[in-house]
Amino acid sequence: MIDSYLCLFQSIGGAAPRTNIEHTTGIFLAMNVSYFTVANSAMTVLLNQANYPAPQPTQEQKSRFIKDVLK
User: Fold this and answer.
1) Which helix (H) or strand (E) holds 52?
2) For residues 65 and 63, what is the distance between their CA atoms, to the nearest angstrom?
3) Of 5, 21, 34, 52, which sits most exposed with the smallest number of CB within 10 A?
4) Is the pTM of this model over 0.90?
5) What is the pLDDT of residues 44-65, one digit of tens each?
6) Residues 23 and 50 sit within 8 Å (Cβ to Cβ)
7) What is the dihedral of CA 30, 33, 35, 36, to 10 degrees?
8) How much of the chain is helix, strand and coil, in % rounded to 5?
Protein backbone atom coordinates (compact mmCIF):
# COMPACT_ATOMS: atom_id res chain seq x y z
CA MET A 1 0.00 0.00 0.00
CA ILE A 2 2.85 2.41 0.77
CA ASP A 3 4.14 1.80 -2.76
CA SER A 4 0.83 3.14 -4.08
CA TYR A 5 1.26 6.32 -2.06
CA LEU A 6 4.86 6.55 -3.21
CA CYS A 7 3.72 6.58 -6.84
CA LEU A 8 0.92 9.04 -6.16
CA PHE A 9 3.18 11.51 -4.34
CA GLN A 10 5.77 11.29 -7.09
CA SER A 11 3.04 12.08 -9.62
CA ILE A 12 1.76 15.01 -7.58
CA GLY A 13 5.35 16.16 -7.03
CA GLY A 14 5.93 16.59 -10.75
CA ALA A 15 6.67 13.13 -12.19
CA ALA A 16 3.37 13.10 -14.09
CA PRO A 17 2.13 15.67 -16.60
CA ARG A 18 -0.19 18.26 -15.07
CA THR A 19 -2.99 16.99 -17.30
CA ASN A 20 -3.01 13.76 -15.26
CA ILE A 21 -3.22 15.42 -11.85
CA GLU A 22 -7.04 15.58 -11.78
CA HIS A 23 -7.23 11.80 -12.16
CA THR A 24 -4.41 11.26 -9.68
CA THR A 25 -6.08 13.33 -6.98
CA GLY A 26 -9.30 11.34 -7.35
CA ILE A 27 -7.41 8.11 -6.72
CA PHE A 28 -5.52 9.70 -3.83
CA LEU A 29 -8.71 10.89 -2.11
CA ALA A 30 -10.43 7.52 -2.59
CA MET A 31 -7.47 5.75 -0.99
CA ASN A 32 -7.55 8.15 1.96
CA VAL A 33 -11.22 7.42 2.58
CA SER A 34 -10.86 3.65 2.29
CA TYR A 35 -7.54 3.28 4.10
CA PHE A 36 -7.35 6.20 6.54
CA THR A 37 -4.86 4.60 8.97
CA VAL A 38 -2.56 3.51 6.17
CA ALA A 39 -2.88 6.93 4.54
CA ASN A 40 -1.81 8.66 7.73
CA SER A 41 1.21 6.39 8.22
CA ALA A 42 2.26 6.44 4.58
CA MET A 43 2.04 10.21 4.24
CA THR A 44 3.96 10.78 7.46
CA VAL A 45 6.76 8.38 6.51
CA LEU A 46 7.07 9.48 2.90
CA LEU A 47 6.72 13.22 3.39
CA ASN A 48 9.24 13.36 6.23
CA GLN A 49 11.96 12.48 3.75
CA ALA A 50 14.09 15.39 2.56
CA ASN A 51 13.43 16.52 -1.02
CA TYR A 52 10.45 14.20 -1.35
CA PRO A 53 8.39 14.27 -3.52
CA ALA A 54 10.17 17.39 -4.79
CA PRO A 55 12.75 19.79 -3.31
CA GLN A 56 10.45 22.85 -3.26
CA PRO A 57 8.03 22.13 -0.37
CA THR A 58 9.26 22.93 3.12
CA GLN A 59 8.69 20.55 6.01
CA GLU A 60 6.10 22.99 7.36
CA GLN A 61 4.21 22.88 4.05
CA LYS A 62 4.35 19.08 4.03
CA SER A 63 2.99 18.91 7.60
CA ARG A 64 0.18 21.30 6.67
CA PHE A 65 -0.63 19.18 3.60
CA ILE A 66 -0.96 16.03 5.74
CA LYS A 67 -3.15 17.84 8.26
CA ASP A 68 -5.41 19.32 5.56
CA VAL A 69 -5.79 16.08 3.61
CA LEU A 70 -6.58 13.92 6.62
CA LYS A 71 -9.34 16.13 8.05
Assistant:
1) none
2) 5
3) 34
4) no
5) 888 888 888 788 889 999 999 8
6) no
7) 140
8) 75, 0, 25
